[in-house]
Each structure stands twice: as structure tokens, then as C-alpha cells.
Amino acid sequence: MLGKLKEEDFEVLRGPLESGRQSPGSLGFALILCIILQPLLFALEYFVAADATIFPYKDEILRIHFFG
After folding, report:
1. How big is the CA angle at 20 (ends 17 and 22), to the nearest 5 degrees?
2. What is the DSSP letter of 13?
3. What residue intervals traverse the membrane (predicted)?
4. Rounded to 5 degrees, what angle do the CA atoms 46, 49, 54 make?
5. Per the domain annotation, does 28 fall within a domain?
6. Which of 11, 20, 21, 24 is an S-S bond match for 16, by CB 3.0 to 4.6 Å?
7. Is residue 58 part of a domain?
8. Would residue 1 count as lying in a domain?
9. Helix (H, G, I), strand (E, B), or coil: what is residue 53?
């Protein structure tokens, strides 16, 4: 199936690159923002969701989120 695709089929993927939304500066800012938001999300999961849930795999979710 991949052999049937032509170069014109992928032209839609050039839009974000040409508009600057996926420029190195823009992607760098997004990565820095993710570094800041990751501990906040982990704290939210740990103190709010995992404390009051009866879900059996809550510890595995927190472990994967912390190391993944």
C-alpha cells in the first residue's frame, strides 16, 4: 500500500513547516514548557487522582509517568 503513495500525497504535511509553527524555536519552547508542566501533572495525579481511587493499577500508572 505504501508503494502506491505519491509525493503529492504528502504536501499537506509541509504546511506547519512553512508557516513556522514547527520551527526549531517553536519546538524548543514547547519542550521547555513540557519540562515545567510534567512535575505539575505528576503531582496532580499523585495527590488528587491516585489518593482517592480504587483503580488497581494506580501505582503502575504513576511509575510509568515518572520514568517514561
Report:
1. 60
2. G
3. 27-48
4. 110
5. yes
6. 21
7. yes
8. no
9. coil
Cα separation of 30 and 20, whole Å? 13
Range of the domain at 33: 10-67
Q: What is the pTM of this model?
A: 0.54
> 4 lies in a domain?
no
DSSP symbol at 54: -
Cell numbers 501533572: residue: 41
Q: Which residues of the chain have pLDDT under 70?
A: 68
- Longest Cα–Cα distance of the chain, Å, equals 52
What does the pLDDT read at residue 68?
59
Q: Which three cell numbers stand for residue 9?
A: 500525497
Q: How many domains is the chain partitioned into structurally? A: 1
